[in-house]
Prior knowledge:
Helix content is 50%, strand content 20%. By secondary structure, the chain is α+β, with helices and mostly antiparallel strands. β3 and β4 form a beta hairpin. The longest helix is centred in the first third of the chain and has 22 residues. It is globular. The N and C termini lie far apart (39 Å). The relative contact order is 0.15. The model has no long low-confidence stretch (mean pLDDT 84).
Amino acid sequence: LHKEYRRQRQMCIRDRREAARRHGVPLYGLNYKDKPEDALAWLGRHGDPYIASASDVDGRVGIEYGVYGVPETFVIDGAGRIRYKQLGLITPEIWRTRIQPMIESLQ
Length: 107
């Protein structure tokens, strides 16, 4: 089970990177409760799709955003408001039917 989760997480990172590049969407990461050096090593091994990443070792930023599990994806508008929150992995269907239309409506 753990091995399958890791595989899905790697695919999620890859898919986010590809979708962001195709649609000109900047991605920012939040390293939630991991040691910064561990997170950087993981991104180094699997690809870093983010423009920048913040570290939230104690989970306080995550609490402010309502994070309670990873991965989570937020679409945040130009005014800093959360317009969409996706819990779990982003499948092609979720991207096509939920996230992409939201992003397009904000551009």
